Structures
1.
Amino acid sequence: MRGKKISQEVLAYQPDAVEIEERSVPGRVRWVLYVILGSLAAVVVGAVVFKVDRIVVAQGKLITTAPTIVIQSLHTAVIRSIDVQVGDSVEKGQILATLDSTFASADLTQLTKEAQVIGTQVRRIQAELKGKPFAALKEEGEDGLLQEQLFRQRKIIFNRNKQFNAERIAALEAKLTLNKVQHQGKERQLKLLRDVEGTVARDRQKDTGYRLRLLDAQKNRFQTVDEMASLRAEEQVIVHELQQARSEWRRFIEERSGELMEQQVTLRNELEKVVEEINKAKRLHELVSLRAPQPGVVLQMADLAVGSIARQAEPLITLVPLNSRIEVEVNVPARDIARIRTNDSARVKLDAFPFQRHDTLPGKVRVISEDSFRLNDRGESLAQSPSEAEDAFYRTRLSLLSTKLRNVPPGFRLMPGMKVRTEIKVGSRSVISYFLYPIIRVFDESLREP
């Protein structure tokens, strides 16, 4: 009876088991089998086709692209007041701390007085060179009065020298005039003596005393000629002395002017140096009040109290700029660094704002350090040697593509130092690989003896 269909009449007299065996399979039962087989096929295809993201998780914090601002003292001074604390937000120009201004004020006062004294000297020299009067100003005080007294004394000496030289020149000019008058008189006298000598020579035959009178006339003529020669020599001496007197006066004026101009140049150079020192002292006096150069947040303060001594160039206050761009700096474990590339996308989760409520921040990898680091006992990062690879990490920075979160309070802003958890997408992986890789590993590492 196997292989043959039993008729319904015969089947009615057969046992129940035969009746069940000969009954046809219901259509729904067949479809259940087809659905199970289809589901298994779909699962396999889905495991091959569908992929899941591969991520690298790294911890880090928010940082600024701009370097921190370190407030330092330019000179050693005593701290008079500290006006901020760590975490305070400060505006541009706000006073952070105040130093003792005693030394800075003393230097500024001394330099200002020195500049005033030099300026008074320069003004007095200019008045002497231009021949103008000089009077002390009220703000110049005793130094101005001393310069005015010196100006008067030098003017008296100058006038005396001028008067002495003028009198000397006048005396020489008078002497020269007298010499010229005497010379003219001698010329007239010589003319008369020549006439007398000629007359005596014509009357030599009529007068027996001719010879004696002729000799006497010649004697007088020769004597007059000698006197005229003496007057001419004396005239040359007087002219030379007159030229010398005038030359000495011009030399006196030139030497005096040259000396004054040299003093003026020297004093001007000194004044320029003092003015530069004054500007420096003013700047130091302004820096007695340490102010914020731009808006920021107080990140760190030196362990100093009011009354302590702040040494020159010692860092007192460290600020984090507010208006700079925010980035993420994370420490990627050394075992995961091979999978990370620049421009890899990432999700940034802030510890202070749960992502379930406030969402995440999108970002991308901007730079990866060229060497690995490790943490020392104090939590500071140090470059590690090849023998210290355990717990090593690579410092990685990510740029934030957006800084907007949901359901944040008014006035919210991202602050440097916030702790974050970053998920860097490094690729994708098929679902079936989770099943195949263990099997492949078993086949690869089994059936052999090490």
2.
Amino acid sequence: MSSPPAPTRPFAATLGALTFGKATSNAALRWMSPFLPTLSRAFDASVGTLTGIMGAAELAGLSTTLTGGALDRGRHRTVFLGSLVLVTVSSLVALLGTVWAFALAVVLLILGVANLTVAGLALIGDRVEFSARGRAVGTYETSWALSLLAVAPLLALLIDRFGWRAAYLALAATSAIGLLVVARWVPTPADAGPLRRRRETGNTPAAPLPRAAWAALGSAAFISASGLSVFVISGAWLEERFALATGGLGIVATAIGAVELASSGSVALTADRLGKRRAVAAGGVVLLIGAAVMWIADRATGSSAGVVALGVTGLLLLILGFEFGFVSSLSLMTEAAPDARGRAIAAGNAMGTVARALALALSGQLFEWFGVTGPIGFSSVAMVAGLICLILSRR
């Protein structure tokens, strides 16, 4: 099988549009965790109830198993645009202000985010050589960090001045703009490079994914759960343990976005040279160090500025390690089965969906039962499992 061509100048514009579109969807998803105490009051539900809903809704990501074949036929643009429509609608549904509306909104949101993420990764995998894919995937995944970095302070301001509904209105407008950008710059299937040639070979029966692919897909799935299990309760922990108000949570959320941006940027700059497996392992080590620092801060006496700084530092280290390791693992996932890339990435996302759903469903309850020790313990176990799968994927 010949290698796909290196990214051309037109694809650079496509990559930029994909990244922007993904950033708008990520903003709608990511703001909920650091502002979970605010949403708890808005929807008159406990943190545990909301995280339980988010965990159950995460299973909507299993829908990617139905779109993998479409991606292998070059329907990336259709999937991406349809997904952004779902993201926009989800923010409007949440304006109803009931727990049921929140649940429906999160389901629609996860449907959109999961499918557009897979569509973008599949297109990158088809258009960018593996030797340079760390840079392309790292660039694409800066959307995860940019969404929080750009949106968190704005949403904190809107909530303080106009209430929580203003945040959802802003998110709906942002994702609608993302929809327009993607419609303009992401190519139609007929212009999708090697994808067109693949379709012209005829209707060849789909081959099963190779056994070696499953360990790489499992590694990314476990690692995705390791970060989310702590991030989702981070706002509640900071408010409960250190008495941070909405403004303080907004500042920390912005700092998290900055750390994630630096981490994703580092993957784009270094993962191809360092080696993608080594990059995943390095991220895992940093995450485990961050978890230990968070545990120490939580056990410290009082809430002095030094203790608060220690807790925030631990959280930022954990996020730094998670982001670096997870983004690096995505490059490995895009090459797990080159002849069935869309289906492989879709299957990997489905595995990640189950892992993240478990993390979301358990993290809130673990936090209520054991404090932050519960979620960081879950995070550490998930990361170790991901690293074990990484080792097995070499066999």
